[in-house]
Amino acid sequence: MKIVLRTDIEGIGKRGDLVEVSDGHARNYLLPSGRAIGATRHIATQATAMRHARDIANQHAREEAESMARQLVPVVITVNARAGKAGRLFGSVTPAEIVAAVEAQTSVVLDRHKLVIHEPIRSVGTHEVGVHLHPEVEFVLTVEVVG
Length: 147
Fold this sequence. Notes:
Elements: E1 2-5, E2 18-20, H1 23-30, E3 36-38, H2 43-72, E4 76-80, E5 88-93, H3 95-106, E6 115-116, E7 121-123, E8 125-134, E9 137-146
Parallel strand pairs: 4-9
Antiparallel strand pairs: 1-2, 1-3, 5-7, 6-8, 8-9
């Protein structure tokens, strides 16, 4: 069955895409939940409008992410934490603490879920934290932990 997606659905497509799915999946899940509409001749123009709106929103989000990246890349963010004599922290630096430090020092508001920390920060010094703001915009944030 051909349908037009009203929302992004992982594994199937994005909003406004005209896709072919099994009849049962369309009838039992996608159509009743409002995530898709049946494809007719008149729906094609609506699908085109949905794709156009999606592209404009994506472009705007990418430009905003690039602007944030330009602001944050040259800056070193300082995070205060309690540490022992050997420079080992009591606990670790959390993404929420990093986001709060970024906001306090640069007035840029980040979502803590956008930070990519592969291993916990448990020592004093300079650390690199990945930031994934948009599928096309990723950068490294330099964080200095002071004890």
